[in-house]
Amino acid sequence: MNDSAGPARKTISFAALLRDLREARSLTQQELAAAAGVSVDAVSALERGRRTQPQPHTVRALATALQLRDADRMALLSTLGRAGDAALEMPSRKLTPRTPSPPSVEVVGRDDEVAEIVAALGTTPGRLVTLTGPGGVGKTTVALVAADVMAAERPGAVYFADLTDVTEPDDALAAVAHAAACAADTVTGLAEHLAGTSALLVLDNLERVTACGPHLAELLTASPDTVILATSRVPLRVRREREVRIAPLGPSAAERLFGERLAAAGAPPMGRADDSAVAQLCRQADGLPLAIELLAATAARLGPRALLERIDALRELPVAGPQDLPARQRTMAATIEWSRQMLGPAAQRLLPRLSMVPGSFSLDTVDAIAAPDTADAVGALAELIEHSLVARADDTGPVTRYRLLEPVRRHAVETLEPADREHVRRGVARWALRAGREHGARIRGRGDMTAVEQVETDRHVLRLGFDHLVDTGQYDDAAELLWSVWLPLWMTGHTHEALAWTNRLHENNLSEHGRARWLVARAGSNRVAADLFTTAERAMCLAERIDDASLAAEAAIFASAAALRLEDFDGSRTLLARAEVLMKKRLDVERDVWAAVHVPIGYGDGALLRGDRAAAARHWRAAADTAQKLGSEFSVPAVLAECAQAARSEGRLDDAAVMLAAAAELSPQQDERLRTHLAGVAAAVAADLGDVASAQWWEGVAGSEPAPDSAQLDERFRELVRRAETVSGRD
C-alpha cells in the first residue's frame, strides 16, 4: 500500500496528516503512543494542533511506529517546514556534557538541608531526590551546593540540565540526554551511555514537565548506579522519589543574608537603629531568599528604615533583582506568576481570595471564602499547598491551619477583582458571625477554654468579618459578633482591640437588643472607664426589659465592679445578689458558667478592697470550686490575672500582687501558658514597684528559662505581695 498523496499532501497540516496516517493503519492514539514510546497526551496534542513544533526524536519515533515509506516521511516532515530525511535523525554534532557550577554567591543557612540531601543521595543507588518549595526559596542554589559536595565525595560524572523552557514531558528526556552528551534520547540509549559512570543528574525546574517522572524512574531502573537530584515546585509523585522540602530561612539566617547582600551592594555599615528595620523587612519577606535579595537591593539605595516606612505602599520594588538571574526571578511578582500559571482553574480562583486573610486560616474559613464553590475548595487548597503557594501554619492548636507566605499574599491580593473582594468579605462575615456565636456560647455556657484559644487564633479573620458588617450597615449583626467575642478578647489580653470594635458602632444605629449587647461589651472591655457604672446600669436595665437574663447578669456584674470603684460596697453586693438571681434563672434553662463564676469573683474583689484578704481568698476558691462542680474548663486563675492587670492600671499594686498570688495558688502546674501570663503580669507589677531585679527574674520565668518549682514560685509571689504592701504603706 502506498500512502503518499503526492503534491496535495504538502498543503495539509502536520496534525491532519498524522491523524490520516494513523487512521489509515487502524491505530488508536493509545496504540500509536505505545509503539512510539511517547505519551497519549503528546499524540493527542499533536493531532489537535496544540503542539506544532515537535522535537526531531518525537517525529522520528512516530515515523518508525507508523512504518512510513520515504515519500510519507518526507511529506510529514515538509508540513513542519523541514527538508530532507536527515532532519529526522539526531544532529551529528559533537555534544559536550554540561556540568553544574557551584553558586556564584555565598549560601546562608542551608547546611542542614544540604547534609540531608547528600545523605539521601548516598544511601541507595538508583535514588531520585526532588527538592520542592515555593518560588524564590533557593531550590536551585541548594541543589548546586549539594551537587558540589557529592562531586567531591564520590566518583562519577555530574551533569546539569535546566528544563525551564521544556514544556512537553516527552522532550524532557531529550534535554537530559543533551546535558549528558548522549546522542541517544531514549531511556535505553541514555542508560547505556551512563552505564558504569555512577552519574549524578541534576535536573532543574521540572515543575512544568512532572509527567516525565515515570521516564526518570525507568531510567534509574535501567541504570542503577545513576542518581537524580531534581528541583520542582511540585513533587513528581513516583515511588522512587524522596521529597525534600526547602523551607524559608529562619529569622537569624534571613537577617544575616540581608546584611550580606546589603554589604555586597555597597551600602554603608548598618547602625543599631537599622537592626529592627532589617528584622521587620525579613519578616515581610517571610524568609524567602529571593525576596530578601530584592528587598536588600532596594534597601541598599534607600536605607532599611526608609524602605520599611514605604513597603506597604509599594506594589513592586523600585530596584529589580540581579541580572544574572532568569527573568522570572528578577521580581517576586514574576516568580509567583510563574507558579500561578501552572494552577488549575479552581486553585487560580481561590489563591487571590485567600490573600484577603492577613494571617493563618482554617478549612472552615477556606469554605467560607470559596463559597459557593466549596466542593472544589479542598482540592484547590491541596493544589496550592502542592505548588508551595500555601503552607501549613506553625501552630499546635486543635485545628490545622494554613497560610500564604507574605510575598505571595501581597502579590495575590493585587490581582483580586473588586467583585471577588466583596464576595470574600461577605463570606468571611457570615463565617465570623456563625463562629462568634458558637465560641461565645461555648465560653459562657461551658467555660470552654479551647474556644477562647480559637478566638485568639482567628482574631484577624473575625476582625475582617466585623469590619464588613459595619461597612455594609449590618449593625445589629456586628453588635452580636462583638458581644460574642469581647470576653475571649479580654481574657487573652486584647482589651484595646475589643474597645476599638465598640468604638466603630453607635447606639443610635442599633435595635434594643443590639444596644444592650453593645453596652455590655463596652462595659466589659473598659472596666476603668469613668462612665462604667452608668454604662453597665443602662445595659442591665435594657437587658431586663428585653428579657435577656444572660445579658442582664453580665451587666449587673459589671455594675457591681463599677460600684466597688466608687467605694459603694453595699451597692456592689446588692448588684451581685441581683446577678445571682438572674444567673439562677438562666441556669434553669442553660448553664451560664461565666456568670456563676464571676459572682463569687466579684464578692472576692469587694472583700479585697475592704482589706479582708482571707474573705477574698475564700470567694475565689468558691469560684474555682463552682467551675469544677459544673464540669467547666473555665480558668478562674486566668480571670484573676486579668483582674490584676486592671488593678495595676488603677495603681492598686498591692491588690494586683494579692490577686496574682491567689491565681498562682489556684492554677494547675501543667498550664504553661497561664504560668507565663502570670509571670508577665508579675514582672510589670515589680517594675512599677521599682524592683528591677525582681522584674528581670519574672521576665525570665515568662521567657524561655526553665520554670522554677511551685515552692519557689509561691515564695516569689509572697515577696511580691510584701514589696507591694511596703510601697503602698499597707504593711
From TrEMBL:
Domain HTH cro/C1-type: 18-74
UniProt xrefs under Pfam families: HTH_31, HTH_77
GO MF annotations, alphabetized: DNA binding
Matches recorded under InterPro entries: Cro/C1-type_HTH (IPR001387), HTH_77 (IPR058852), Lambda_DNA-bd_dom_sf (IPR010982), P-loop_NTPase (IPR027417)
CDD domains per record: HTH_XRE (cd00093)
Name by which UniProt lists this protein: ATPase/transcriptional regulator with XRE-family HTH domain
Organism of this sequence: Streptomyces griseomycini
